[in-house]
Amino acid sequence: MAPDLLCYKTYDTPKTAFERVVASKYVLKQSKGRLKKQYQALDPFKLK
User: Going by C-beta distance under 8 Å and a sequence separation of 6 or more, which residues neighbour residue 32?
Assistant: First the structure.
């Protein structure tokens, strides 16, 4: 390996499980809509 050759790794930005499901093309739009409603109704302070 040549010493002047550099390799830079780039990573995607981290996503929550919810964001990955909503971005997936394999999940039905109806399911995404239900999940979005449920996600918006969540209160992080009440979850504790």
Answer: 21, 22
Q: Does residue 28 or residue 45 have the better pLDDT?
A: 28
Phi-psi category of residue 43: left, alpha or beta, with phi > 0 → left and psi -120 to 50 → alpha = beta
Q: Is 45 helix (H, G, I), strand (E, B) or coil?
A: helix
* Residue 18: partners with Cβ closer than 8 Å, 6 or more residues away: 35, 39
The pTM (predicted TM-score) of the whole model is 0.64
SS3 4: coil
